[in-house]
Specification:
By secondary structure, this protein is mainly α. The protein has seven helices and four strands.
């Protein structure tokens, strides 16, 4: 993460107005936004409380990186990795590379994956569950939307 660390350092210095090596809690939100993070109001309240209670209202660079930004950067990286893996899996099913998985492509892929054919009704059910925009195909946006749903929504 050296590149991200460098970006954090630049942003941190930009908002360390008096150059004392500490960021005032009031400036943390602007610093995070400069980095491209859009914290919710609840996140900001938690962060500000943490800075006030743990560090007396000012946070140094190590704590800013390690305790405030580190977990957020890891979560974002994990999400990006998830999308990368999802896109790779999508390409395996999209045999003609047109950006859509048809019922026929789904049938062939499932046969290769499972080693046996699924019944037409089973395939159609899978397609209906995943085809959120109901165009008769599975496109990548359908999968991306599903990834954001809670697991409980699948029942």
């Amino acid at each position: 993460m050296p590149e991200e660390l460098e970006e954090l350092q630049v942003a941190f210095k930009e908002f360390d107005y008096d150059g004392d090596g500490y960021l005032h809690y009031k400036d943390v939100a602007d610093c995070m936004r400069t980095m491209g993070y859009m914290p919710t109001e609840m996140e900001l309240i938690e962060i500000i409380q943490q800075i006030k209670m743990k560090w007396g209202g000012h946070v140094d660079f190590d704590d800013f990186c390690g305790e405030l930004m580190g977990p957020r950067m890891l979560a974002e990286t994990a999400h990006m990795m998830g999308m990368k893996e999802l896109r790779s899996a999508f390409r395996q099913f999209d045999s003609n590379g047109d950006g859509r998985i048809t019922l026929e492509e789904l049938k062939e892929s499932m046969k290769a994956l499972l080693g046996e054919k699924l019944k037409k009704g089973e395939l159609e059910e899978i397609l209906q569950d995943i085809d959120l925009n109901k165009d008769g195909n599975i496109d990548f946006d359908d999968l991306g939307s599903i990834q954001h749903q809670k697991k409980g929504d699948f029942n």
